Amino acid sequence: MPALSATIITRNEAANLARAIRSLSGANEILVVDSDSTDGTREIAAGLGARVINHSWEGFAAQKNFASAQARHDWILSLDADEELDPQAQAAVLAWKQSEPAAAGYRFARRAQYLGRWILHSGWYPDYKLRLFDRRRGSWQGAYVHESAVVDGPVATLAGEILHYTCASLAEHRQRIEFYTDLAAEEMYERGERVSLLRRTLGPPWIFFNSYILRLGMLDGVCGFLIARMAARYVHRKYAKLADLQRKVYSSR
Question: Which of 55, 117, 152, 241 is the most buried (most CB within 10 A)?
């Protein structure tokens, strides 16, 4: 039977971490890699039996790869601190441990809670995520944002869901957008992407239409409308910040 290390990266996640750790009872060890938290995150993790390592922040993918490398076992189950495995997914992990793995990686559907409501449309569900993998055949990729685990070999789907507790307020969502669009703009700039006026003008309304109409966000009620509006805001801010970076570099020459 494969031994399993569960990994979580954290930074000031005291409000979320206990829920995530408690859903990982099927793991042989739980490793929390923390980045200089000041809210008691490390103490909560240790109190729940996790092994804790402090490691200064290097980026999402780099931090998760560091966690994989520090784990005691080759099979890694990675969760974010604001996620948990639902009971069916927990049972699926226990069943998976009873036999020799048939794939290099395994994915779960992920269901997001937004402003207190579970979202079933808007392009947010089923949002499959590869989170269980053999570190000898896979790693995390993504320099800035949207990191993902990539494996060399077949990927299978396990039953159950990862429950993702996203923004509890619009203010929190706006704050996240500012954080992630900073990273996205830097990533686009490093790739040599350039933003045109047409792209900045048409991009946000297209994203709103795609989320709210084509991806049936309207069926998620008010939350679906807000998700679409915030998706458009994300694109607007990302392109605006990329344009600012380009202007700053040009003016410094």
Answer: 241
Q: Is 186 exposed, middle or buried (0-12, 13-18, 19+ CB in 10 A)?
A: middle
Amino acid identity at 185: A
Backbone torsions φ then ψ of 141, nearest 5 degrees: -130, 155
C-alpha to C-alpha distance for 4 and 152, rounded to whole angstroms: 19
Backbone phi, psi, residue 78, to 5°: -105, 130
Token digits for 168? 């509890």
How does pLDDT run across 147-179, given as a tens digit for each residue?
A: 999 999 999 999 999 999 999 999 999 999 999
